[in-house]
Amino acid sequence: MLLRAHTTAHQVELISMGLDNFLVIGDVYRRDEIDSTHYPVFHQVDGVRLCTADEVFQNVKGSGKLNIFEHRGVEGTDKQGCHTLEAVKVMEYDLKRVLVSLAQALFGQSVKYRWVDEYFPFTHPSWELEVFFNGKWIEVLGCGIIRQEILQRAGISDRIGWAFGLGLERLAMCLYSIPDIRLFWSLDSGFLNQFITDDPHKKITYKPVSIYPQCSNDISFWLPQDSAYCSNDFYDLVRDIGGDTVEQIQLVDEFVHPKTKKVSHCYRIIYRHMERVLTQDEVNDIHKKIEKASKDLLHVVIR
């Protein structure tokens, strides 16, 4: 079974089914470090809009001779080689108008915003939308003009499209002042009941249910010399064993032995349960299991 890393993976399938305007919402999975803003599963929204030449230029006077494609065009920073600049600029205007309206609906009509040029593999040109919120600029979403090769793989040869994507948890953390992304997976009624309302526009600010102390243990080991090692494999192993009791994993030291040239890593694992106090004995028991699994599966030598 292959877990999707982004909902963009469904674009070709849905476009092939004949859809030209749609949203895709779903859970996605990524290998990542564990901390208050990163979690291996979160929810993403993708939006897509496709337009024919008539739809692109319907509000442009004297557009009878305008086309969305050109032959032997050259790709630059402002367009793909197959698109006309006129079509891209109209689509860019439509895309940004829609997404600014979305940001204003979420953060208020007077919110300050800015566009930042960006690179994404599925769109070109591409941008990030940032808003000024709580005294700092934050990224809200990424977007751009869909790569025409994607549309061609879906059997579309007469349209141009735009797309955007955003992460729901990160957005909700900003809007509701939620400090830890793992809270979205809590079954604690003290957390969940704060968001029960009949008014979707009601302003809700998260109130911490309880705060428990952290427990931290370090683990140091020599990396294997006869096989490959990747820190993400260690993060996965810790997550598999410690589950939600692991709050953070930090690489705090890297040492190369001057004579043997062996490499040593030291990680600090911070444990904290979301619903109760962890005892040091509980933490030590989990930590010993992590040490044993690291030796057996990653072939490291515990120091």
TrEMBL record:
Against InterPro entries, the record matches this protein to: aa-tRNA-synth_II, aa-tRNA-synth_II/BPL/LPL, Fdx_antiC-bd, Fdx_antiC-bd_sf, Phe-tRNA-synth_IIc_mito, Phenylalanyl-tRNA_Synthase
List the PROSITE patterns hit by this protein, alphabetically: AA_TRNA_LIGASE_II (PS50862), FDX_ACB (PS51447)
The residue ranges of the FDX-ACB domain are 210-303
GO CC, alphabetical: mitochondrial matrix
Keywords linked to the UniProt accession: Aminoacyl-tRNA synthetase, ATP-binding, Ligase, Mitochondrion, Nucleotide-binding, Protein biosynthesis, Transit peptide
Q: Which residues form the signal peptide?
A: none
Enzyme Commission no:
6.1.1.20
Chief location = mitochondrion
GO biological process per UniProt = phenylalanyl-tRNA aminoacylation
**Record-annotated Aminoacyl-transfer RNA synthetases class-II family profile domain positions:** 25-208
What catalytic reaction does the record list?
Answer: tRNA(Phe) + L-phenylalanine + ATP = L-phenylalanyl-tRNA(Phe) + AMP + diphosphate + H(+)
Instruction: Name one molecular function that GO assigns to this entry.
Output: tRNA binding
Name of the top EC class for this enzyme:
ligase
Q: Where in the cell is it found?
A: Mitochondrion matrix
Q: Which NCBIfam families match?
A: pheS_mito
The UniProt similarity line reads: Belongs to the class-II aminoacyl-tRNA synthetase family.
Supply the name of the protein.
phenylalanine--tRNA ligase
Record organism: Trichogramma brassicae
